[in-house]
Amino acid sequence: MTDSTGRGRSRLRPPRTRGVIRPVRPFVPISSAALVVFGWGIVAHNSGAGWVQALGDVVAGTLLLGILGPAFVLSRARLRVTAVPTDGTAGLPCELGVVSSSRVRLFPRHPPGPECFAGPAGSPAPAAGDALTLVPRRRGVHSWIAVDVATAAPFGLLWWTRRLRLELPSELHIGPKLGPSVDLPRLEDDHTGDSTHRSPRDIGEPRGVRPYRPGDSRRWVHWPATAHSGELMVREMEGPTAEPVVVVVTLPPDEDAAEAVAEQAFGTLVALFDRGTSVFLTTLETAGRRTAAVADRRSAGRRLARAVALSDRAEPGVIVTMDDAHRAHRRPSLP
Fold first, then answer.
1. Tens digit of each residue's pLDDT (9 = 90 or more) over 72-114
2. Residues 85, 105: contact at Cβ < 8 Å?
3. Is residue 62 pLDDT above 60, yes or no?
4. How confident is the model at residue 300 (pLDDT cuts 50, 70, 90)?
């Protein structure tokens, strides 16, 4: 995610490594404990029995430990992220490994995710740690996560919490969702057939034979090779030399609009990959403008995760540039 200037990866300021420990809804537990101690004191004073007073002291100490004990446990809890996936997708869950020295409840805040528990619970945790699931809402590159850590140990009378920033052992790239492609030029093909998925037409000189694939024309069948191999073989023809398709992605400063443009860019790149087209992607990153080849969904998602918005008033959108060789000798795979 980017900030309003387009130069940062997150609009949230990284929280301090360890936040302030604070109670969660303390009024009811504290007032209830105070009423119990006060009532027991009245009973002990009226009875005059020493064992009643001694038992009241035990009850008061237990309540005090149950209220203040979780704060001490939380102050000594140590958490560490042990496993991180290299890539993820906005809106889809990705799982991290977390180890904790104490049993705590985790609430992922940035990126958000469902609550979970981590730490000792009677059975040994796996080597990678307990599972912490994140569901990022937007694309971006994360080197840390923010979680709220809570515990009510040892008696569960009062929950205490604090916000922690956990550094990741490796960067987590969250790519955009797969959006609709821009309108790509319809590519020419002289030979129509029964299949909606057609291979490149037979142009150039023959360069060999290969097994039949759905969409190959019946005129391409090489009968001598078919008889020799026992399976249907077709001629493979030399294709024209074509320059890579260039896709230029310009993101607007608004986060929602930038996410929509990134989704459209990702859909366009996937559509070009399905054609078997070589693609160069141009984006703006924190280090400056970058143009480099992308070969698959993973590399495209990583590039779009690192893309930031322009600070000037450049027109946002996705621009696709292809030469005549791509238009004349290849056609898209239809859904």
1. 999 999 999 999 998 999 999 999 999 998 899 999 999 999 9
2. no
3. yes
4. very high
In the DSSP assignment, the letter for residue 18 is: B
Residue found under tokens 């970058």: 290
- Judge contact between 187 and 274, C-beta under 8 A: no
Compute CA distances 328 → 13, 173, 206, 243, 322, whole Å: 51, 37, 19, 13, 11
Q: Cα separations (Å) of 188 from 70, 200, 301, 323, 326?
A: 70, 10, 29, 13, 9
Bond preceding residue 29 cis, omega within 30 of 0: no
Q: How far apart are CA 116 and CA 88, in angstroms?
A: 20
**Distance (Å, whole) CA 38 – CA 43:** 9
- Which of the 8 DSSP states describes residue 112? B
Contacts of 316 (CB under 8 A, 6+ apart): 250, 251, 252, 257, 258, 261, 309, 310
* Confidence grade of residue 303 (pLDDT, cut at 50, 70, 90): very high
Instruction: Name the pTM for this structure.
Output: 0.71
Is the CB of residue 147 less than 8 Å from the CB of residue 169? no
Distance of CA 83 to the CA centre of its chain: 14
Which tokens hold the place of 203? 């142009």
User: pLDDT category, 196, cuts 50, 70, 90?
Assistant: very low
Q: Which amino acid is at 256?
A: D
